[in-house]
Records
---
Amino acid sequence: MDLASSSGRALPRGSGAAEERRAEEPPGLPPGCELPPTRQTARWVMRPLAFLEELRARHGDVFTIRLAREPPWVMVSDPELLKRVFQAPADVLHAGEGKRVLEPILGLNSLLLLDGERHMTHRKLLLPSFHGDRVKLHEAEMRAVTEAEIARRPAGVAEPAAVWMRAIALEVIVRAVFGVSGEQRRARMRDALHELNVPANADEARAPAFLRARERVDELVYEEIARHREDPDLRRRDDVLSLLLQSRYEDGAPMADVEVRDELMTLLVAGHETTATTLAWALERLARAPAAMARTVAEAEAGGGPYTDAVIRETLRMRPALPMVARVVKQPFELGRWTIQPGTIVAPSILLVHHRADVYPEPGEFRPERFLERKPGTYTWLPFGGGVRRCIGAGFALLQMRAMLSTLLARARVRVVDPEPEPLRTRAVTLTPGNGAVVAIEPLT
Ligand code: HEM
């Protein structure tokens, strides 16, 4: 499963596009980058933070960027305006519509892709699976999966942590969300998911290789749904699939199999790469900050603690796995002194608001202590988005990251080979470490 294959969306489509684009643009856009879309795309991919910070220095907290093959994006990083965006009525800004590229994999009933009333109905069905008490039930498994993966790593060999973090995050989803039990069935599911990549465009979504991989995954997912439905102990199971099968619409109807399938795929796509990338960034940051590493290691044996949580929050601040979210404007939308017209994308810039010096002094410094001293602000710390679209897996992700980090640091020491920080890259919709967070781990004896 590679989310990044959808990077095709933000790839250059050839020179001369800038002028074409301008003619079709909605009127009254805030000023912004004047480079051709191909060059803006290259900067967005290769130097996202520098690109956005330069534009903010020139234009302030609201500006427009133009990426190849995309409508104009109005980037926002003012906390008051972000509040307006996240609280906007569901018929004015659409969150689901901007993610249509995911439809071939997620289907028509995915929480990520729905808007308006259907979105709220589905959100209510999914939310109970992610309540704190429920999520806690998966902690022991998260630790066990991490231990098994650490035992497989070759000692002392420098390799990208992002790769094995993805393996751990995938295994956790296969067990805790899909509820697959038995090593053989898990291996089949893992293998099938490995073959399935998110198509970048309509052509890729029609390609036989994609259709075959999706068919194989669907076959296994429907088999798992049937197996769960037949299980007389369904009520005693803790996995998300079991809870979805027991959930009911307001009229008492259960979810159809296809709806359950689409939500399982949604949780996989939304939850696995994001968590793995954040953990990879946490290691990338910590391995270059010996004092912070020492404090985190000191809490590891006890399973993590306030400092470990602060490390995770600071990592999510400096390196949010999703650097922005997108809203398609459906009706004229007042944003400060601008009226944004339909057809535009309003994009809360999570990365930029997390680098405001007035909120986070010396924002380029990795300083977990910031989050020991105070709680994250609703509209100044937004790694999980906000409003009615806020990440439903946030509690699950925070718990998993604490479990993974503390389990790893209780068993091994983590060492960097190159002391230079890794560059930031935008890969599809995620902000990733340029080299995949290369570290060596030395197991403790
Ligand atoms: C560090 C890990 C994670 C990060 C940074 C993250 C971030 C986000 C963000 C920013 C959004 C809002 C998208 C928008 O406004 O358009 C979101 C939504 C969502 N996330 Fe997460 N997420 C993470 C982990 C997870 C996990 C573990 C799951 C589930 C297993 C999950 C499931 C979802 C779902 C279903 C939505 C859609 C909510 C809706 O539209 O109502 N996420 N996530």
---
Amino acid sequence: MVPAILLVSILVIFPAVTFANHSWNGYHWARTSNPFTLKLGNNLSGVWQPFLGTTSSDWSASTVLDTTIVLGGTNPRPCKATAGRVEECNSTYGFTGWLGVAQIWISGTHITQGTVKLNDTYFNTAKYNTPGWRNLVSCQETGHTFGLNHQDETFGNTNLGTCMDYTNDPTGTAGTNGTLNNEHPNTHDYDQLVSIYSHLDSTSTVFSEIGGVSALLNTPRPDAGIDFDEPAEWGRLIDVTDGGYTAVYERDLGAGEKVITFVIWTDEARAARPDLTQRQK
Ligand SMILES: [Zn+2]
Ligand SMILES: [Zn+2]
């Protein structure tokens, strides 16, 4: 007489949940247990501190990963990556067209390191110098470093209530994108993380598990000397979106490695540089 128990077991093993896929190619940090803890290197100036705190605690609500803010391992320029973790940087990177970029280094299907750059050249202007824009960009770019893609790439449509949705109105109060707030992750993002990280790996690419930094520091990098600040350094455009704007680039570094670059363009860049941003077909 076990049907009820059996039924419960089956439901636990095969939860009836469907996940809309917004992972990026299934790329993920290799780790041997869940939840795993990813270090966010803090190379940020004072104004960004509370936003990194919000981003870190927002994503740590995930059941499969935690983030912890640690002393930064680089300078904001060039925001050099550190193996096994994410470096968070801000600087006046110039009128590059991008508000924020996230970069992840991939070996096979595994993320080995990541960076987030926040461009104060724009955040120092009235339009972007708001908690809404700062939260959106910090949350989204950090989300990319876990292997998440965007949920939606049309700037002008109704907010989905997640920072992984491009918008012209992060707070949902301007009357242009509905009323939902895009400053934080939503349930869909947490579900997607569960989907990406439900399996375990036999090896790890996460800092706390890779066993010592000195060996890594001595390994020559195939991308030494590239700062990845400019579109010309990002490789080929690989994301073509229904919104008419492209956002993701891939550069093969050789030695089995590549770099994926996720971009949030400014309004101004989207208007002025259709060659960079418009649909490629
Ligand atoms: Zn894996
Ligand atoms: Zn993005």
